Amino acid sequence: MQRLSGVDSAFLSLETPTARMHIVGVIILDPSTVEDGYSFENLKRLLMSRIHRIPPFYRRVRKVPFNIEHPYWVKDPNFDVDNHVRRMTIPAPGGQAELGKLVGQIAAAPLDRDRPLWEVVVIEGLENGYVALVTKMHHAAGDGMASGYLMLQMLDMSPEVPKISDPVPLPSEPVPTDAEMLQQAVRDRIQDPLRVARQARKTFGKAVDLMRHWVSKGTENFSPVLPFMAPKTMFNRTISAERVAAFGQAPLEDFKVARRAFNCTVNDVVLAACTGALRRYLLDHADLPDKALVASCPVSVRRPDENMAMSNRVSTLFVRLPVHVEDPLEQIRIIALDTADAKTVHKAMGADMLQDWAELAAPYAFTAAARMFSAMRLSDRMAPVHNLIVSNVPGPPIDLYCLGAKVVVFYPLGPVLEGAGLNITVVSKKGEMDMGIMACPDSAPNPQLIADYFCEAAAELRALADAKLAKDQEEATA
Q1: Is 229 exposed, middle or buried (0-12, 13-18, 19+ CB in 10 A)?
Q2: Is the Cβ–Cβ distance between 107 and 243 less than 8 Å?
Q3: What is the pLDDT of residues 154-185, one digit of tens each?
Q4: pLDDT above 90 for 146
Q5: Beta pairing, strands 22-30 & 2-3
Q6: Residues catalogued as catalytic
């Protein structure tokens, strides 16, 4: 039994019929490396043998009466793996277009709140004889780092087929009664006025320090982007429940070479590739704004001792993507400066600011606000908080296998939010940068174009980086 943190609870409360708050991963396997061949039943048996390692896979959410306090994770007394694992056959010819459509349909479906909040869909019939594992886990169970750790429990570092053991009995856990949960909630909420006052004083003090820093630096040297500074674009409208996914893959070395050449971070290069891709896409749709887009970039605030912990340990940076600028070199220069300013704001306000305020918010308040925002279609009337979400998650730099089948690629897919119908997520792994796009088709039709443009933009940045490094070498030896 474990109480959800404020941020974990918020992901549950902010979910609406059109905004599903789960994380999706698409793991493509090559069964040709399996000596005895691929077997769905063996795959399910492997998962069953490892469920005991993954508490979110056998725990479900239990609400506090009247929804006045964050809910609890409790062991599901009726847990059955058959409720969470199923198989599908992809329509011919089984390429990326068919996979993106099918994954979008899977992502659009809600998870059953009366069961543990996850599922695995095995998709067979892909091109080249590949098999896809589509994993879906609610964001309440953890952030990108946590979900990646969970997925690693299904994989191995060796091509040798592991011996599948019998399922280990799930641990017994006490289940609180409604009366016990309500009693604890009342005790916590009685202290709310004092906790809110302390948090407000803390936040105000940090905001004052940040303003002093802003004044001392001047607007020419320090101009961080804030929420509601984003231009209105096709991405920023009321979303529907439909989803479509798109995928891309680029050499990781392209990003590393560009990082060295332009004296920035790999994340800056990722954002620059996104900028180039989005500029082309918006030009295609005659919707290019005259100022930079604003991307919300989740960042991990995990301490080293929390790397394997479940729950969400994230904060957010707001970063400009200068799509109105044509020159890729100028784009990456602006992004590098902007991310530095965003990190200054994040450091000044504190990594735990979002976590602390979320602890104080009652779930019913989040739920009411999210449903009102969606029902009144406020996204069509208000300035957008941001234009899209861009996430960059580090992955394992080694080959991985599932029952001897090699992992060919891993596409990460995050949720889209009301008023921002596009989410771009990339994950670095051995030699590659894998990219997944989740979109509402009303906001971003044919997002595969963005994925293709991203790969082209990364290649262009690599070419520019090679030219710069060669020129620097010539000047150094002259």
Answers
A1: middle
A2: yes
A3: 889 888 888 888 888 888 888 888 998 898 88
A4: no
A5: unpaired
A6: 139
2-186 CATH? 3.30.559.10
Query: Number of C-alpha atoms within 13 angstroms, CB side, residue 452?
Result: 8
Domain boundaries, the chain: 2-186, 225-394+417-477
381-412: per-residue pLDDT in tens? Answer: 899 999 999 999 888 889 999 999 999 999 99
CB burial readout 394-419, b (16+ within 10 A) else e: ebbeeebbbbbbbbbbbbbbbbbbbb
Residue whose pair of structure tokens reads 């200054």 in the numeric block: 344
Q: What is the pTM of this model?
A: 0.91
Check for a shared fold between 2-186 and 225-394+417-477. Answer: yes
Q: Which residues are registered as beta bridge partners of 72?
A: 3, 62
Q: What is the side-by-side strand order in the sheet with 59-62? A: 2-3, 72-75, 59-62
Confidence label for 303 from pLDDT (cuts 50, 70 and 90)? low
225-394+417-477, superfamily in CATH? Answer: Nonribosomal peptide synthetase, condensation domain (3.30.559.30)
3-class DSSP state of 4: coil
